[in-house]
Amino acid sequence: MNMRSQIERYEKLGLRESLPKIYRYPIACREIGFILREAYIQFPKNLQSIIFHDTLAAFRLLPQIQTQSAVSAVHFLLQSVEAALPKQKRNMAVKEFKLAMVAHKRRSKPQHQEEKDSFQLPHDVLVHIFSFLDMQSLVSVGLVCWSWNLAANDNHLWELQYVALYGNAAKQQLINRVEDRNKRHLQDLTDTKSITDWKEAVNRAYTGALAKKLTTNRGYCVNCRTVVWLNNSKCPNVHSGMISEVQEIKPVTPFQVVEYVLDDSLSLTSSSDSDSDSEGGPVSRLWALPKM
């Protein structure tokens, strides 16, 4: 029974389905790597076979994922392969890795030329595209180039982020507070910059346990009782007709993912739920990113 449940829990991680997605590929590779290192020999043979084939799939998909983070993650996965797999499987996996790296290098050369010849999308088109991103991705695309940075700092995008995190009620409360302050200082209410500076509003509220949740793409949903991929720190699954709130998500580390697959236990009372952040942590790094 435990053997079967281990397979089910591993399948629920959705690693195989996430590998083809460029923004999830590095995370999936690292989780597979941690599972190989920490627990591979403890799993039954059928689950070992599934993990092995997911490892081969990760190597084979590398040429399609033209990012430096993907290359870094796949090297970590290779180290885990060399440490955990028996000789025959290890040799097969190393061979796949070498073939993937050759294909990756060949494919990256013409792509660099395409980037030089690419045209610039209009600002309003970029803003529309960026409106589908979560907060962490929105910050990341702002580092690509000047025009993307300008679009990623569009005030409406950060208003959407504020609503996604805290809801329309919190948004209205913030507007009311700023309007009251403006009235007390006899400011002209046609100057709405202080009301609509939504990126700064998110920045001020971006602290403690919530901040830690927002700097990860993985979490444990207390409703699903499983590790899920997050969308703006929320579980994408619907529970009783409602999406999980931020408070119903617990951030998890790769080691906790291994714990979950092994015996369905998670150390969720760790410091990751603390309301304070250490200086230089993920929050500080994220908000230290300057405008271009």
From TrEMBL:
What the entry lists under PROSITE patterns is as follows:
FBOX
Q: What is this protein called?
A: F-box protein At5g52880 isoform X2
Source superkingdom: Eukaryota
A Pfam family recorded for this sequence: At5g52880_ARM
Q: Which InterPro entries match?
A: At5g52880_ARM, F-box-like_dom_sf, F-box_dom
Per UniProt, residues of the F-box domain are 115-161
